[in-house]
Design goal:
about 425 residues; alpha/beta; D-Maltodextrin-Binding Protein, domain 2; 2 domains; two-stranded antiparallel ribbon; 11 strands; about 40% helix; globular; disordered N terminus
């Protein structure tokens, strides 16, 4: 079926995947932002999606202690796909947005191309001092052609492979990180090892969680995914996308997946502790998610190694921005600056695994190990992945294309749709939503 390709004015090169970060949190604030609290101090509101790790690391409480008179109200949304449309409504009305809002990497090209009038230019604030402290691509992705900086980076998502060592042992497979890595020279090796696991796996355990997750991991290692450098939408002619889709679909048809929808299916959350799947491609930020969902009972069962072939991949990452509707822009900028300092980003990584984008913070976390993951050298693993990750091209509708393809793979898993038909269905969805 024909598919139109259209240009996007702001395709940005970045070491990031275009997958949507659908981790966990609560809902964005409502009502007009208040400039002061009841006692005359400054009342700031922060609205995020997913597990940014800021609250988990106690940073909001710490900032309040360091800045008497400042109070922070933090709210969050369970899924970014719910968070973002709600925020767009608030931005359009000029009412109801928080002083600080999270921006997922899959949205940043759209923000830069189409929403500069709705966001504060952080280069004119104290938060702009962070720009030279970041990986170049991270800052460039949030900067307009006119030099306005619309977001300051929080984390990036260098990729690893998280796995249940106990389940691999029960299936008679290697379980030490170096031994697992030695078996996985490619994604074909990964699915072949999955077939061995399936033949001897504990009852009720699949090799991996989902076809969509496997697909995201594979494309995370590519430089060109949905758009090319000219800003053309090329997902349907890019062999890397089709190959990743076919590999994931074949894994689903072979029974290697647990048929779970990431971040949406409650059974996916419980699967981390319940043993529904043995392996999952995990960006750094998923380390904290696994701990939260598997709980204390999962400690010492999970481990981490590199992606097949030692490939560098990146899935996700985010920014903090200040809507122009904020009545506390100056104080909000001070908060954004402090939250993204090296020391704070390092604390977030120590607590939740969100890998820093501030170069000073990256130096601080390289030696980090995680006792929950059997003392895995997560700082080393994810630092190496970040360095090896390719520079990727971002487009305005990356998130739309990615979601359509992941949903198509879910239909293969759960409804038995043929891969070729699922691919065509994804194309129809993308054409209807993007053009």
């Amino acid at each position: 079926m024909p598919r139109n390709r259209r240009s996007t004015a702001a395709t940005v090169a970045a070491v990031v995947s275009t997958a949507v970060l659908l981790t966990s949190c609560s809902s964005a604030g409502t009502g007009t932002t208040e400039a002061t609290s009841a006692d005359g101090g400054t009342a700031l509101t922060v609205s995020l999606f997913g597990t940014f790790g800021l609250d988990e690391a106690g940073l909001f409480d710490e900032y309040e202690k360091l800045n008497p008179g400042v109070t922070i109200t933090y709210q969050s949304t369970q899924g970014e796909n719910t968070y973002w449309p709600a925020l767009q409504t608030k931005l359009a009305s000029g009412n109801g947005a928080a002083d600080v809002q999270g921006i997922e990497v899959g949205r940043i090209a759209d923000v830069v191309a189409n929403q500069a009038g709705k966001w504060t230019d952080l280069s004119t604030t104290v938060a702009g001092e962070q720009v030279p402290n970041y990986l170049d691509w991270k800052s460039a992705a949030a900067t307009t052609e006119d030099g306005e900086v619309l977001g300051v980076g929080t984390d990036i998502g260098p990729m690893g492979l998280c796995y249940r060592s106990d389940l691999l042992e029960q299936a008679g497979l290697p379980s030490a990180p170096a031994d697992v890595a030695a078996q996985l020279g490619s994604w074909d090796d990964y699915t072949a090892m999955g077939e061995k696991f399936k033949a001897a796996a504990p009852a009720g355990t699949a090799w991996t969680d989902s076809a969509g997750g496997l697909y995201n991991a594979i494309v995370s290692t590519e430089s060109e995914i949905y758009y090319d450098e000219a800003g053309e939408l090329v997902w349907d002619s890019n062999p890397a996308v089709k190959d990743a889709f076919d590999t994931a679909a074949a894994a689903a048809q072979s029974g290697l997946t647990a048929k779970l929808e990431q971040f949406e299916d409650p059974a996916w959350d419980t699967g981390f502790g319940g043993g529904s799947f043995a392996t999952i491609a995990c960006p750094a930020w998923m380390i904290g998610y696994i701990k939260g969902k598997a709980g204390d009972a999962g400690a010492g069962k999970w481990n981490v190694t590199s992606l097949p072939g030692g490939a560098g991949g990146n899935w996700g990452g985010a920014y903090l921005g200040i809507p122009k509707s904020s009545k506390n822009q100056e104080e909000a900028a001070k908060l954004v600056k402090w939250l993204t300092d090296p020391e704070q980003q390092a604390k977030v990584f120590e607590v939740g695994g969100n890998f820093p984008s501030n170069t000073g913070a990256i130096e601080l976390v390289t030696g980090t190990k995680d006792t929950y993951f059997q003392d895995a050298p997560i700082g080393q693993i994810f630092s190496a992945a970040a360095k090896a990750a390719p520079t990727q091209v971002l487009g305005e509708d990356d998130a739309v294309v990615k979601t359509a393809l992941v949903q198509a793979l879910l239909s293969v898993e759960t409804n038995g749709v043929a891969p070729a038909e699922a691919w065509e269905n994804a194309g129809s969805t993308i054409e209807n939503q993007v053009g």
